[in-house]
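In practice, a research group might receive sequence data for several interacting partners and want a quick structural hypothesis before committing to experiments. The following worked case mirrors that situation: the sequences arrive first, and a predicted assembly follows.
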Amino acid sequence: MAAHQLTAFEHVLLGLVCLSPASGYDLKRTFASTPMGVYQPSSGALYPALRRLETKGLVRAMALDGAGESARRRRVYEPTEAGSAAHMSWLRTPIEPSTVARDLGLHLVRFVMMEHAFSRDEVLGFLHDLSDALAAFIAQLEQHAAVPPVGDRHPLLALDHGLAVYRASLEWAGGVMAALGTAPNASS
Amino acid sequence: MAAHQLTAFEHVLLGLVCLSPASGYDLKRTFASTPMGVYQPSSGALYPALRRLETKGLVRAMALDGAGESARRRRVYEPTEAGSAAHMSWLRTPIEPSTVARDLGLHLVRFVMMEHAFSRDEVLGFLHDLSDALAAFIAQLEQHAAVPPVGDRHPLLALDHGLAVYRASLEWAGGVMAALGTAPNASS
DNA sequence: ACAGTCATGTAACACGTTACATGATTTG
DNA sequence: CAAATCATGTAACGTGTTACATGACTGT
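A structural hypothesis for the assembly, expressed as tokens:
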């Protein structure tokens, strides 16, 4: 059924639909209003992607209850069971250390979507893997910085930028692990 | 002649060729060996892109001097005058504050390529604009953080990540401005 | 009624990825 | 000489972008 693997974009859309059923227009607004809005999907990308998810049996258009007749022309999608399973599987996808820098934004999206899908331990495990991957990437950058035979300054400065940014990322992960580890999710 | 504007990838290739003449394979190795290697261009992207640059009259295949007969099968590109001009124009492209986060990596590449093409004042101007754009983006993120009516924690934590990362970026820009501003490029 | 937003969709186009193909040159 | 690397290229395929089209609903 679900033949080829999904695009990153499709995975994000599926995740958003899993968080709460939504129409294409809702999703568009979501991208526009959240800090995720660094990327504004076009209609030509959004609607075909949703149709692909539907074709693969991962989402389905909800029956529009209530008005029955009116409020037409609106396709609100909800995940199927296969869709929920695919989403969970995506959330559990191990972090590839070799591409952690490229995929960092995507990992952050996954982190957000984990909140109500994962146990605290699972989240901590994810953050631990993320920290490891970031540390490895930083170590790699440091090796580049250790071999500066050229007389140019800008390449080294750009490298410093990468180091500063990914160290901030790593520190963030550490801080979140500490916060989640100590704070009980108890209450209620 | 140079009809439509170039892809980011094409601009980077042109910039590399402007730094020093290179063949497609050389460029591939450049991506593989430098910290820029978060992106590994495939042959199917690299060679057609170079041909497009050639078609647009921005680069030309150098005549292979020396061996004449041997060392065939190698197309070493050098920039044409139109290519050098296009590259300088790209380096001078103003920073779009609305997309500074998305384009940050590209701006870093531009910063590296500016070293031998810009005066110190031009570089400082670029860094100043970059700082402004980053500060504006950070302020925007802070506004998002100021309106947390939901009970979820992860979205706010992800926002903290963005703040930490872009603040690091902003601090880097400030540090580089200070370093370049005080240090004389004199010597020699 | 009319404009603006809501809401979905399609067509042309360009680009990147994957995978494959092809020879020349070097290395063991 | 065989195998690996150098070096360039092509074809199928999927996808995103831009731009356009369409129709219903809302507010004035």
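Before designing any experiment, note the following. The mean pLDDT of chain B is 90. Residues 23-25, 28, 43-44, 46-48, 51, 73-75 of chain B lie near DNA strand D (CB under 10 Å from a C1').
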